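Notebook entry, structure prediction.
Reason for the run: the old model in the group folder had no record of what sequence produced it. Starting over properly, with the input documented here first.
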Amino acid sequence: MWDFDHCDPRRCSGKKLARQGLIQDLRVGQRFRGVVVSPKGTQPVSPADRDIVAQHGVAVVECSWARLDEVPFNKIASPHERLLPYLVATNPVNYGKPWRLNCVEALAAAFYITGFDSYAERLLSGFGWGHSFYEVNKHLLNKYKTCESAEAVSAMQEEILAELEKSYDESRRTVGATDGVDGEDLLVPNPNHHHPPESSSEEDEDEEEEGAGTGEVGGPDKAERK
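New structure, fully documented this time:
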């Protein structure tokens, strides 16, 4: 990972993975040939990236959601920059928030989608809450895994968001009818209307928290050698 030290080292999942020997730091400007989960990506990670991940692994950018402008993304070199599709965070800071994945969640998501479930589980197993990421996102991850290309993942994401929007509208109508108010917006705005950058950073309202990391996680073969 490329680590910009934006988060508290005691709470940073990327740094914890490094202490466990499961992730390696990358230097700014150092070229990485694997998949990089980055808000600067132009297409989502997909099962089509499996061979790239198997050979070269996955990297993330460790930074704060609020300080993305400080990250020199032009110096983070990879021919395979990828976004993450719609998923829900289960980390303690951003539990239940769509898109706001931290480093370990972003890495695990990339491994799940590309078919390396055991390695995703290995990364998450070091966190007490780690099992909940798959439990909450299983139905989404399984849908993305059926796609053959990045375009198909994008289409699946739009289908998922449309279903969420429909469910939200139905819930709003139900609440309005129950309360005798027709058409009034009684629920909080649908969080899916706003798409923050699909990086792996996380931050709560009052303090900076870990974000998209700049580190490397090896593919399954590398994992076995660690």
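Summary: The CA atoms of residues 5 and 99 lie 21 Å apart.
The old model has been moved to the deprecated folder.
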